[in-house]
Design a protein that fits this description.
Blueprint (H helix, E strand, L loop, with lengths): L5 E5 H6 L6 H13 L4 E4 L5 H15 L5 H15 L7 E7 L2 E10 L4 E9 L6 H12 L6 E3 L7 H9 L4 E3 L8
Parallel strand pairs: 5-6
Antiparallel strand pairs: 1-6, 1-7, 2-3, 3-4, 4-5
Helix pairs in contact: 3-4
C-alpha cells in the first residue's frame, strides 16, 4: 500500500538541509526569517497547548476539514493528540510570529534511533512556515536521533511531492493482508 509507506529521513539531513537538492528548503526558511524576524520556536506545554489548538481550528476552517472526509478524520486524530498529549508522552512545538501561532508539530520517540513526527500543520500562505517548523523541531526534539520518520502521505499528491522533496533515505513499505 504505497499510500501508507512511512518516509524515513536522515536526521542530520533535516537538521542541516545541506546540499544543492535541499537549497529550495533553505530559501523558503530564509524568506520566513526575512518576513518574520521576530519568529519564535516554543515547545508545547500545558500552559500554551490551547494556542496550538486554536491555530489548528483556524487551519481546519481554511482547509475545509469538515467538507473532506480524509481531513475530517485527520482532525479527529489531532484533537485526540491534544486531549491526551501528556498521557501519550507526546512532544510538540509551535512557531510564533507577531501575528500569533503560524505552525505546530507533534511527535514522539519511536525507538532509540528514530523520532516519529505524527502531526505538522502550518498556514500555507506563510512562506517557509512548513520547512521552518520541520527544521526547528528536528533540531530540538529530534536531537540525538539518527532518523526521523515523518509517516505516510495518505495518497495525497501534494503531500507526497513535499515529502519526497526532503529526500528520504527510505520509504518503508506497508502491505494490507486479508485472510482467505
Amino acid at each position: 500500500d504505497r499510500d501508507s509507506g512511512d518516509y524515513v529521513y536522515s536526521a542530520e539531513s533535516l537538521r542541516t538541509l545541506a546540499g544543492k537538492k535541499l537549497a529550495a528548503k533553505r530559501n523558503h526558511i530564509n524568506r520566513f526569517s526575512e518576513n518574520y524576524p521576530e519568529w519564535e520556536y516554543v515547545p508545547i506545554t500545558d500552559e500554551n497547548i490551547e494556542e496550538a489548538q486554536k491555530m489548528h481550528n483556524s487551519w481546519c476552517k481554511d482547509s475545509g476539514c469538515h467538507e473532506e472526509e480524509g481531513l475530517f478524520h485527520e482532525t479527529c486524530a489531532v484533537k485526540c493528540a491534544f486531549k491526551y498529549y501528556n498521557e501519550l508522552k507526546l512532544t510538540g512545538a509551535m512557531l510564533k510570529t507577531r501575528d500569533g501561532v503560524c505552525a505546530f508539530t507533534i511527535g514522539d520517540k519511536l525507538n532509540d534511533k528514530t523520532f516519529l513526527v505524527h502531526i505538522e500543520k502550518a498556514f500555507s500562505d506563510i512562506q517557509g512556515a512548513y520547512p521552518m517548523i520541520n527544521k526547528q523541531f528536528v533540531l530540538n526534539a529530534g536531537e540525538g536521533y539518527e532518523f526521523i520518520n515523518r509517516e505516510e502521505d495518505t495518497g495525497d499528491e501534494g503531500l507526497r511531492k513535499a515529502k519526497l522533496s526532503y529526500r528520504p533515505v527510505e520509504i518503508i513499505k506497508k502491505f494490507n493482508a486479508k485472510e482467505r
